[in-house]
Design goal:
With about 325 residues, the chain is mainly alpha-helical. Helices cover about 65% and strands about 0% of the residues. It contains twelve helices and no strands. Belongs to the mitochondrial carrier (TC 2.A.29) family.
Length: about 325
């Protein structure tokens, strides 16, 4: 008994405290039961599918917006389409698609992951998670980050779309631009792109979240509280993409001018000043020139956003099931 008492007192020594067991490591989730890298993969897949599917429409828009030295005449979608097919064949509609593939995946991975993290940070645990302001500001943060990744390849893509044999491919374009114009040429349109995409994204995300919420409230019997159908994502995405595209068309025209300058007779500018480019467009083509390509731009972004959001939410749902998120149970 004395031995047992001595042993007990030994373990009651205040200097000998039991060491707490290390808790099981679980990667912290960022939002919606997903980890950061899963948002990146979902965004990358969604962006790649969106841009690849709608690439021919983007090619037509680029041709309509390019500014040539000669006096301009109104060019419709059918005219631009026929001109491309007659001069270069159907394959010209997909020229530059590899540049798009190289840029769209990484850029959208940054885009959606920054959006989700920013939305969680701005919303916190309060009711502001459904705030249009939180969604809009998160969208602006996302686009500033993703445009830094996407702008160089977008410039290469547009030059290849306009090239008509000027460049042999993506890497030939990259090497020649670097050699002839310097690294700065890849970011000549970055300021314009950010100034265009910041309001575009703010309108896009705020409209998407509002439209999604409205659609769920309109027919709650068809859409559960915890599981929104793909039709809701597609419809809300189409509305958001079309509206945002219409609002920001003038800046998209400026961006195209800066990225295609010097290619196939397109005007070359002495600076990348947005105001200088705007003045040149108005001088040569009038104010209507600022709206060139608005219809194919809307025809691109409405279905592209529908494809992108439904794909993105679908991949998110897959990861939630994979992670065993209780919200999806």
């Amino acid at each position: 008994m004395a031995t047992e008492a001595t042993t007990a007192s030994k373990f009651q020594d205040p200097d000998l405290r039991p060491v707490s067991q290390t808790p099981e490591f679980k990667p912290e989730t960022a939002h919606d039961g997903l980890r950061f890298w899963q948002f990146m993969i979902a965004g990358s897949i969604a962006g790649s599918v969106e841009h690849m599917a709608m690439f021919p429409v983007d090619t037509i828009k680029t041709h309509m917006q390019a500014l040539r030295p000669c006096p301009l005449k109104p060019v419709g979608i059918r005219q631009a389409f026929r001109s491309i097919i007659q001069k270069e064949g159907p394959s010209a509609l997909y020229r530059g698609i590899w540049a798009m593939g190289l840029g769209a995946g990484p850029a959208h991975a940054v885009y959606f992951s920054f959006y989700e993290v920013s939305k969680k940070f701005l919303s916190g645990d309060s009711s502001s998670s459904n705030s249009a302001a939180a969604h809009a500001v998160s969208g602006v943060f996302a686009t500033v980050s993703s445009d830094a990744v996407f702008t160089p390849m977008d410039m290469v893509k547009q030059r290849l779309q306009m090239g008509e044999g000027t460049y042999r491919g993506v890497w030939d374009c990259v090497k020649r631009v670097m050699r002839e114009e310097g690294f700065g040429a890849f970011y000549a349109s970055y300021r314009t792109t950010v100034l265009m995409n910041a309001p575009f994204t703010a309108v896009h995300f705020a409209t998407y979240e509002a439209a999604k919420k409205a659609l769920v409230e309109i027919s709650p019997e068809r859409v559960g509280d915890d599981e929104e159908g793909w039709l809701v994502h597609a419809t809300a995405g189409a509305a958001a993409g079309g509206l945002a595209a219409a609002v920001t068309t003038p800046l998209d025209v400026v961006k195209t001018q800066l990225q295609c300058q010097g290619v196939c007779g397109c005007d070359r500018f002495t600076s990348s000043s947005i105001s200088d480019v705007l003045k040149t467009i108005v001088k040569k083509d009038g104010y209507r020139g600022l709206l060139r390509g608005w219809l194919p731009r809307m025809l691109f972004h409405a279905p592209a956003a529908a494809i992108c959001w439904s794909t993105y939410e679908g991949v998110k749902s897959f990861f939630q099931d994979f992670n065993g998120d209780p919200n999806t149970a």
